[in-house]
């Protein structure tokens, strides 16, 4: 018979969802919002788990948490266990429904997917089908998320995400000069455009009270996703919504330049009336993420 004192004890199981979500989002604040708790409560849960294991799972940094090597290893087992429980729970639920959500590729990848765990936790009988507008869709969607341009917040009373644009670059591009650079000097560097008409850049320059003259040249892309990728490689100065580059900002892959300049350039919202109660509930869930 094995010595019971040598048998490892199970960790506090109630802390595992917080650990999994925090690992996915890299943010105590986002984890707290998903679980309807306070960031302090999430921090205490993770600390309780670390104390029970006797292992540090996260590196704490300013406004960010990053998994340690042990944390990454443990996450694999935790996610597998939670997925097994979730699948078992879903199999027991009657009347499963399918909902197709169509959205532009950048908002789907960079904003919606990191938050979907919250929706699925509250709607366990829903099977989601997420389709990108960039790839097209073969079926009629239940919900279509669209983007509209505009610089006046009052134009978007039903939007779940206002698109405020900031100038960003890779630290490889400017190094220590980031802190002292002024708006005019940015245009002496290559600028990255996500539309042919430079909509975001023109709104940013207008807010900075300067003319849009890209003296350092420009590179134009047909999606903001491609522009962000180019910015990450150090090709130039880009424009992006902080909400779409949360991970890159947390991890220092991108740096905001002249942060006081952040005009509204558009908004994301569901187009048209809600076709059914399920779509309306999804829209209400989206609106809980709107920043005040």
UniProtKB/TrEMBL annotation:
Residue intervals of the HTH lysR-type domain: 11-68
Gene3D superfamilies according to UniProt: Periplasmic binding protein-like II, Winged helix-like DNA-binding domain superfamily/Winged helix DNA-binding domain
InterPro entries: LysR-type_TF_proteobact-type, LysR_HTH_N, LysR_subst-bd, WH-like_DNA-bd_sf, WH_DNA-bd_sf
SUPFAM superfamilies: Periplasmic binding protein-like II, Winged helix' DNA-binding domain
A GO MF label: DNA binding
Domain of life the protein comes from: Bacteria
Task of the protein: Transcriptional regulator of the ttuABCDE tartrate utilization operon.
Name under which the protein is recorded: HTH-type transcriptional regulator TtuA
Lineage of the organism: Bacteria, Pseudomonadati, Pseudomonadota, Alphaproteobacteria, Hyphomicrobiales
